[in-house]
Every structure is written in C-alpha cells, then in structure tokens.
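INPUT
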Amino acid sequence: GAGVSQTPSNKVTEKGKYVELRCDPISGHTALYWYRQSLGQGPEFLIYFQGTGAADDSGLPNDRFFAVRPEGSVSTLKIQRTERGDSAVYLCASSLKTGVRAFFGQGTRLTVV
Amino acid sequence: GDSVTQMEGPVTLSEEAFLTINCTYTATGYPSLFWYVQYPGEGLQLLLKATKADDKGSNKGFEATYRKETTSFHLEKGSVQVSDSAVYFCALIPGDNAGNMLTFGGGTRLMVKP
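OUTPUT
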C-alpha cells in the first residue's frame, strides 16, 4: 500500500480480554516501531523491530504486552488481560532502514471498558 | 533520561498572526531534533528536522533552529493559516540511539481562527 496501515482503526474491549492490533508497514521497510499515545500526551516508544527480530523492547510496560513480526513485514501487538489503563491510541511507524525517516500510520484507538 | 518539554496548549491565534511554540530538551550526546504535526483525523507527519547545532529546519513556512546552548528547538511561523490548525509535537532521537526511536513532548494544540 501507499502508507502504513493499521487495523482496526478502533477497538473496544472489556477489561481482562485479549486483543491484537495489526500493522502493515510500507512495502520494503525493514524497521518497524510501535508507540502508545495516551489522551493528551505525546507518543511513547514501546518496541522496535529490525527485520523479524525485536531489536529493542525496552518500552513495553509489562509482560502483558508482546509483539511479533514473523516474516519481517506485518507486525502484531498483543495485549493480554487488558486493563482500563491500556486505553490509548497505538501507533505504528516504519522506515526503509534504521536511521532514515519513519512514516506513521493513523493508529488504532483502543478503549478498555 | 532523555526528555522533551513543550508549551502546553491550546494556542489560539487569528489568521496571519505570528506563531511560536516553545520546545526544550534534555538528552545525552548530540540528539537530532524534530517537529511532527498531527492534523485532525490523520497520522503523525514529519514537519521539519535538524541534526546538529545551529542547523535550521524549515518546511511549509515553519522554521526551527537547533540551539545547543539553550537546549531549545522552538517552532515559528510568520503568518499562520486556518489550515495550520493541528497538534504539534517536538521530538528527539539521542545521538547514541542505534534504533532511532523517537522521544516526544506532550504536544501543543494550535487553533487558528479566520
């Protein structure tokens, strides 16, 4: 596609449920980033992939959060046992390689009720 | 740790007014500095950047100068338009960051009235 695509655009889930958020990066981009943007705040880094491997997951808040990128393209952010505090917009970005401009998707708005 | 502080909004201006959004940072080494913009209903877009001290980034009439002595990267525009209404984020990548992960400020909402 022309840009970074994230699905779904909106997700409402009940507390305690499991959710998956998907990111389709720009074709050929090897670097992929996940950020979380809480209401009224700037995005915060979660995890970074270079190819298939998670090169830096230091931003994941706890072990309920996990992300994969098995074929080096699409990535899925997985959240177990969701809590109301997980409610935020989850942003994905990709770049052709590390060190060049990253392009952001429009995000998935997650609401935990 | 690394951090970015920017003025809280909203900033409300009339069309053709002068804009300044203040941004200061704390970082080790020599970071690269960025301004991103988020228009209503759209994703984050890179507006401009500067990679070393005294560099000036510019785009769409916006400018920001990397001031190492004051650790600042203030965003300016001489004459704003209604279409500039958006949320603006100042951000940095530390000089020693191999993965190029961004650290963002809290964002400043700009509202321009006709």
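end of record. DSSP finds no helices and eleven strands in chain A.
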